[in-house]
Amino acid sequence: MNFILTLLAAIFVLGPLIALHEWGHYIVARLCGVKVLTYSIGFGPKIAGWTSKRSGIDYRISALPLGGYVKMLDEREGEVAKEEQHLAFNRQHPLKKIAIVAAGPIMNFIIAIALFWVLFMTPSEQLATNIGQVLPDTPAAMAQLPAGEKIVAIDGHEVQTWENINYRLASRMGETDKVSVTLQSQAAGASAQRTTYQAPVTNFMQGEAQGKDALTSFGTLPWQPTIEPVIGDLTPDGAASLQGLQVGDEITAIDDTPINDWISATRIIRDSPEILLNFTVLRDGAPLQLQIMPQGKKDNLGNRYGQIGAMVAKTDIVIPDAYKNTVVYGPGESLVKSFEKTEQLAVMTVSSMGKMLSGMIGLDNLSGPITIAKVAKQSFDISWEMVLSTAALISLSLAVLNLLPIPILDGGHIVYYVIELIRGKPLPEGVQIAGLNIGLLLLAGFMVLAIGNDISRLF
Fold it and tell me: Phi/psi at 166 (nearest 5 deg)?
């Protein structure tokens, strides 16, 4: 059942993105006077569709839902009647060819911008960017960042939410340098002072820190409410239940580390998959020693974490006003911010690809369709906002990927047509075919690596 739901979530998120990408190629081709023969969502054998009586275009859904294509009249792919030669793609001016090919990725950029625009216009109450805790032995601790103060800028870029901070830090993945963090004191009004700290990072988020999120790797955690570490429920087959923990037990220490709140306990548990931990609990007012080994699990990106199958007792959580941040933007400001976020994430995506090729970060960071499907399913479990955010990120990734100058991708074709524009004639057909074959091998290699990473994360 979970597999079916994951598959449906992937189709629901990816399907429209692929359809609109291909629609970009399709509509611009028709506007440029090129005859379209087929508009397909998916590759391989046709499983459904119809042929337009007016235009003769074959609209279809094909068996392999890993992309799509728009087939146009082209003399390189077969004989074209003389009266239709002016409608063939290969006969068009290079600028028209560039417009048709670029339209798909541009459509994905437009989708990302539109979805981010909707999300920015949606009011949300978030935690203020005050540092709640600085983790030991992290860049934040080495820079002596004080807890309680508000993060207002990373590397000179203003930040207003923890998501902003996370993205800015994640963009430094694999780097060895200093991260500039600007803090604002808690003093009100004009007396609030800003101080900039330099936090050294070495192979950031790599090595032992690989798999952790950017905030944890850097060492700055948001303010979090104090939740009593009292067990409220247990899963029957979880490590906690099987190894002696009971509902009502209060965790007071794990491996001699004092535990004062639930979040501290869960952090130690998550960081200790299949490691035997010594728990000290209070049961009916008396201390009790237990040994519990968290079960090893994997998240959607293949990162291992520990889980014992214990839930906290229900408690009323009150967030002080000082730690609340209501974020709301008008339509105009939201549009500006959606363009800024799209640009930031596009640059970060290209930078990450460059870092993988240079060895600064591992190729195991590459994800394929299985991971994308799992992330899509997880977004449906959280909220509609998360679904839109996931769709925007995937659309943006599709745009950037397709613009890479690899011959079989849109970006590679654009390179061909730019050369044609400069030369005044197309590249020799043999050169184009050789480039396409090389591009196919490169793309196949990346797909094998990405799917291999997906499978390794599963097992």
Answer: -60, -45
What are 37's two structure tokens? Answer: 């023969």
Structure tokens at 124: 């949300």
Q: Per residue in 200-249, pLDDT tens?
A: 999 898 877 676 788 989 999 888 888 889 999 999 989 999 999 999 99
pTM over cut 0.70: yes
Report the SS3 class of residue 182: strand
Contacts of residue 221, defined as CB under 8 A and 6 or more positions apart, other chains included, come to 131, 132, 133, 134, 135, 215
Query: What are the structure tokens assigned to 296, written together?
Result: 């090893």
- Which CB contacts under 8 angstroms, 24+ apart, belong to 72-81? 72/29, 72/34, 72/35, 72/36, 72/37, 72/100, 73/34, 73/35, 73/36, 73/37, 76/429
The count of other CB atoms within 10 Å of the CB of residue 64 is 11
Copy the structure tokens of residue 59. Answer: 């609209």
DSSP 262-306: HHHHHHHHHT-TT--EEEEEEETTEEEEEEE-PEEEE-TT--EEE
Provide the pLDDT for residue 97. Answer: 96
Least confident range from 42-46, 107-111, 186-190, 343-347: namely 186-190
Q: Are the C-beta atoms of residues 244 and 280 closer than 8 Å to each other?
A: no
CATH number of 231-315: 2.30.42.10
CATH 2.30.42.10 maps onto the chain at 124-224+318-327, 231-315
Sole residue written with tokens 């902003």: 164
User: Strand locations in 142-193, DSSP E?
Assistant: 150-154, 157-158, 177-184
Active-site residues, by number, are 22
Please tell me what DSSP assigns to residue 161.
S
Query: Could you tell me which CATH number the domain at 124-224+318-327 has?
Result: 2.30.42.10
